[in-house]
Amino acid sequence: QVEVVESGGGLVQPGGSLRLSCAASKTILSISAMGWYRQAPGKQRELVAIITRAGNTNIADSVKGRFTISIDNAKNTVYLQMNSLKPEDTAVYYCNIQSYTRPSVWGRGTQVTVSS
Predict the structure, then answer these.
(1) Is 22 exposed, middle or buried (CB count within 10 Å of its CB: 0-12, 13-18, 19+)?
(2) pLDDT for 9 beyond 90
(3) What is the pLDDT of residues 67-105, one digit of tens each?
């Protein structure tokens, strides 16, 4: 059973915008935080942004001022609004869901490509 459903990736020109969504299945209980990581070819996976259910955020310096993370607790869904995209933002973006009662759960990833 797929517990994490990501959507919203694609190809965009530099300076463009994309919005990623990640919905957690109801089988994931006691969610404490939801976030996004990314992995570019040949690089390690890195944190992009994370948000707690209370709305506290941690955003990577490389995307501050361009990316915004938000959460809809009623829908167990996290959003990543990405503006002013740069070629260096090209990566596979992974949703991560943290729970108080089980190990964190990863999505399968969605490709974001920024290119002219």
Answers:
(1) buried
(2) yes
(3) 999 999 999 999 999 999 999 999 999 999 999 999 999
Residue 82 CA: distances (Å) to CA of 12, 19, 20, 88: 11, 6, 8, 13
Assign 41 to helix, strand or coil: coil
Contacts with 71 (C-beta within 8 Å, 6 or more apart), sequence order: 34, 51, 53, 55, 77, 78, 79
Cβ burial 57-82 (10 Å sphere, 16+ → b, else e): eebeeebeeebbbebeeeebbbbbeb
